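Notes on consecutive records. When two proteins share a document, each keeps its own sequence and its own token line. Never mix them. Below: protein one.
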Amino acid sequence: MSTTTLDGTWLPVRAELDGDLAPALALERMQLVLAADAYTVSFAGAVHDSGSFIHTTDTLTLTAKKGEHAGRVVPAIYQLAGNRLRICYALDGVAPTEFATSPHSQRYLVTYRRQST
């Protein structure tokens, strides 16, 4: 395990799935924790999804180990600028090439703000 600049607790400030904005209430209750090579997604304090991740300079690959997505591999691209992290997840398993969603694209685009490290 190694510490990365991505490590910390991340709170979503904006999200869209298949071109539709996520409701504000959903964003207020969600958090992403990245620690070494593990991730956890929680809603209202309950773990929804967890697993491992690997990353390069601008790509992530998440492997879900627990939760409704267990066994799934989700490629993603990311941009990190200070305490802001933008991730475009490819729910269809095909690595995204841009930070965008559209109807039926199976892309989940989230902008996070770092809460802590």
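Protein two starts on the next line and is unrelated to protein one.
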Amino acid sequence: MRRSFIALLSVSIIALATMGALSRPDAAPLPVVTVYKSASCGCCAKWVEHLKAAGFPVEVHDVADASEYAENSGVPVALRSCHTAIVKGYAIEGHVPADLIKKLLIEQPKIAGLAVPGMVTGSPGMEGNRKDPYDVMAWSSNHTTSVYAKR
């Protein structure tokens, strides 16, 4: 009888612990990504959908000239693309993959932001019948650049 009680108690404790673990979210909610883009840019809208599919809440601002936001965010001219986003103080320029934005937010390196310069076929929002290799660039406040990731 005592063994049955101990076994039942053990199973109950494990079940309660498991239910508690399942009811808790695995991670903190992702921060809002604020995007500045042209209203007529289809690839920018697709990139926003890519972010949403990855779990990011997104606040979109359709603007007349997105380059103004790149300038104000300190994005080096050589790294500019078609839209600029801000998340937790970092600038995100162009079609940066959501998984790398998540990595950036976890690691919190001392950089100003990430960029995928230009309009690379196969990058998020620029999907097509091929996938070109590309570099995701990081830059610092003094405009020193480095490769953050290769895709």
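For the record: The first strand starts at residue 33 and ends at 37.
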